[in-house]
Amino acid sequence: MDTADPAGEFLRVTERYRQMSDDELLVLMPQISDLTPLAQQALASEARQRGLKLEDQPPPTPPPTRPPAPPRAKPPVFREPSLSTAPSDDNPDVDDADEDPYEEDRELVEIRQVWSLRDALKLQSILDTAGIPFFIGPEEATSVDAVTSDFTKGVAVRIMRVGIPWAAQAMQHYWPADEPPDEPEDEIKEIPIRCPQCHSEEVVLEEVVPEPAATENPSSKFRWTCDACGNQWEDDGLVKEG
Length: 242
Description:
Blueprint: H1 6-19, H2 22-28, H3 37-50, H4 93-97, E1 108-114, H5 117-129, E2 135-136, E3 155-160, H6 164-170, E4 203-210, E5 220-226, E6 232-235
Antiparallel strand pairs: 1-3, 2-3, 4-5, 5-6
Helix pairs in contact: 1-3
């Protein structure tokens, strides 16, 4: 099977499991560890969506008994250690050959944070319908029912990087019902106008006198009157906190 396209392979495997019956899936589930990581995630997602569990599997039919074959002696094989395949600075390609070429595609990335159980269930339904396996919370649970974290503190939902394009399309109309409140902005502290003589706040703005435009830095002057002491003064309108 061509695995050069992980995304295409993921969709093909998901569609194959959708077409299988419940009994066929139950027979396949005990062998999940023998499947590829993409197939494991697709099988787990399909089984969860149908509500299948491993204990629902019918007992397997015992294989026919055969008489044990007589042991066959094998001659010992001696091999000299190959220096050409030992990892070294002169042969760096040996370690590279063991690297997983699809490791980056299977990397888990966060696509959303949910702040309530109902939003988590809504997002799970969307991802299950699209056949996209997910992991939720620090527990990396594959079902919302298995999450023990506090949703009110925000719980991350992650998927494999290869599924991001399909998740983005499936979540186009996902609107969360519960989001954390916006942090309040710092309130602007209003500084009262005080009389420079008696420091009373009972002041009245009489008029604003603009400076002539011919001056170098034209500005306006503010004329104030204090109702408490009758003091009158002018300033530029800039109040400094004392």
